């Protein structure tokens, strides 16, 4: 498993270590993942990494054009093995295995002379990439084809390529806790929906801003910039994939609240938890001179020659596809009644994902072409054959995802660092759950896996079942259906551990301290923890008990006044505490007409705790939502009052009446304003 810890720069590349957590102990292996800095043409003894198909029209016409087929690679620098040994202080004969980094997703972009489609030079671009590099097909106009000739002759760097990779890694020697106050967050989700501000993005931003959801990181060493970015990305990913589904349904609407709604959600990701590091590699490339890699055809002037582009852009090798053969046929009748049949065969391979076929037509208006496709797999199994509908289009583009192979990536989101929790994943494809099946065991030492199977048809939804194993305990889930190419698995909540982490969250501007009392049982001593600011974490160790533990918080105000809450029973290993008498209200000025009907709007808010000072929010153009902090006398009594004052241009201010509200998202409705 790739770890970001201990990464090193080697000439022209970044090198990452491979770590194993087998048997609960950390150990680095002899494998090193090498991520080169730049893309280069994937030249081999038999290929230059590019092929240019040029077709010329008759003089004075615009019928010509071209097809540029590219294969690029992230090539490891020469002498990388010796460089790795030197960078890590290894012996000259130490075993070193070099491998490309594991990639869970990728995207590729290619432009020629600044164009990527729909221009004077480039008609369209298709590109796809992976850990090894990318393949691309650039469809060129007549002028674009002429520029390729010029670029080759003069060595111009007219090609720009970019490859975005999602590099899979595991957190190593650090601990990330993602937490959420579910009850308070559910109220915010409901209030946002009532204010017309619903949706995952808006809810995530609001929860983080209110510190109702967040992350706490523990590490014994400084993090690199890559690690810090990866941890932040993982935090957002877990919030959106694990926490938000408890608050929002599939349509983004708030789930119904109930008194039984859990109080908090927390997920601690430790040494063997997977994450994704976004990486971009780019290059400006020149095509080396090589006439052997140019294929030319003349179209003539009678419109009787037909060019058909055939492509399968994607990572064919990752799908276990060795070669795709396409047999093209054209049938027609000449003006004298003579039947004409033309045929051409092209081969598509991982290093050459596109080709061109040229036909002599019976007449200019008879353009239909029939294509028969045969997909040959690297496991030497029987090919998948299919006939495509007849087409008169200039291209036959094959979807790699529909070439008879199903691929599903499995990821254990929160594996247990000591390796005790296992996820046994059964997968099945076909009628009645068969005959194609797979089984994978994921745990702390191996949290990811890929299921790939030849199905010889465009993949349909598959079925899967997860069985959780923890020592002698075994919990078997139900069979479910899915069409997703990635399955992220979250273990069920485990029994409470002997260590409880207490984290302070939210604003402390109305507090001088927050005191937490913890007790394992009535006959056990009370442990007191004191917090004076947010984002502080302390641990409490006790013997695990089936009934959980008792917790009570006391809020201490700057003036010495204090408020002690009730003693509650908890069982979660992460306890998030906050100022429970603070109520944050987001005021949305969407209906106030600031900058049009009025030049200023003022919203006064009166706290439920009448001894607290009023909060005032002033909106001047351009008006954006603002937040006010109110004080509660009782966490359960949230009703407050507000008053709106509007300032029309050239008129005295109009002061409204005091109104009651209880929502955490307030959208004031203005009183009528008349224009003189």
TrEMBL record:
It comes from Cellulomonas alba. This is Fibronectin type-III domain-containing protein.
